[in-house]
Amino acid sequence: MQEIYILRLGHRPERDKRITTHVALTARAFGAKGIFVSTKDEVLENSIRSVVDRFGGDFTIETGTKWRDFMRKFDGIKVHLTMYGTHIDDGIPKVKADVRNKMLIVVGAEKVPPEVYQWADYNIGVGNQPHSEVAALAVFLDRYQDRQALQKDFEGNTTVIPCERGKNVVIKDSE
């Protein structure tokens, strides 16, 4: 199975804390192995690690990543999600045909520098209208994994049991 990582560019802690948190949570829920964030933010790191500790999974977070060096040196497929790229329906088959064992998905916060478009192997347009990077990431990961990403069992201490009404949460004893 291909390892999927996310690179979040332009995180502004005071303005983007909820959106970047949601990008990380979406990445984890849809099967990514980790997220790298261009701005150092220990509060974000602690928040995501707390979710992983409680709900399980093999997901890492690193903030303060020097994204230019990281992106240039990444040894796998580089996919940039944008509203300007190849339409997702046309782009996903091309990405799936690329057999490298790791993928880096780049999502921006503010205006993305031109080199991201140049260094990406694929610039994938998830619609051609302004939209949320959280939505773009979820749609891409769901379609890329043939709508199977949400079937994963994380085996954490906290488990949500699906039910039609109410909340059914099971918390395992820590003993």
Helix content: 25-40%
Number of domains: 1
Fold-level CATH name:
Alpha/beta knot
N-to-C terminal Cα separation, in Å?
Answer: 33 Å
> Could you give the order of the helices and strands?
EHEHEHEEHEHEHEE
User: How do the strands of the widest beta sheet line up side by side?
Assistant: 3-2-1-6-4-7-5
- Structural class based on helices, strands and sheet pairing: alpha/beta
Name the average pLDDT.
Answer: 91
The CATH superfamily is known as SPOUT methyltransferase, trefoil knot domain
Note the total helix count. 6
Characteristics:
alpha/beta; Alpha/beta knot; cytoplasm; 175 residues; tRNA processing; 6 helices; two-stranded antiparallel ribbon
Topology readout:
Elements: E1 3-8, H1 13-29, E2 34-37, H2 42-55, E3 60-63, H3 67-73, E4 77-82, E5 86-87, H4 88-97, E6 102-107, H5 114-119, E7 122-125, H6 133-144, E8 158-160, E9 169-171
Helix pairs in contact: 1-2, 1-6
What does this structure look like?
This protein is of the alpha/beta class. It has one domain (3-171): SPOUT methyltransferase, trefoil knot domain (Alpha/beta knot). Helices cover 38% and strands 22% of the residues. The protein contains six helices and nine strands. The chain has helices spanning 13-29, 42-55, 67-73, 88-97, 114-119, 133-144; strands at 3-8, 34-37, 60-63, 77-82, 86-87, 102-107, 122-125, 158-160, 169-171. The protein has a seven-stranded parallel sheet. A hairpin with an 8-residue loop joins strand 8 and strand 9 (169-171). The longest helix has 17 residues, at 13-29. The protein starts with a strand and ends with a strand. The mean pLDDT is 91. Specifically catalyzes the AdoMet-dependent 2'-O-ribose methylation of cytidine at position 56 in tRNAs. Belongs to the aTrm56 family. It is found in: Cytoplasm. S-adenosyl-L-methionine binds at residues 81, 108-112, 126-133. It catalyses: cytidine(56) in tRNA + S-adenosyl-L-methionine = 2'-O-methylcytidine(56) in tRNA + S-adenosyl-L-homocysteine + H(+).
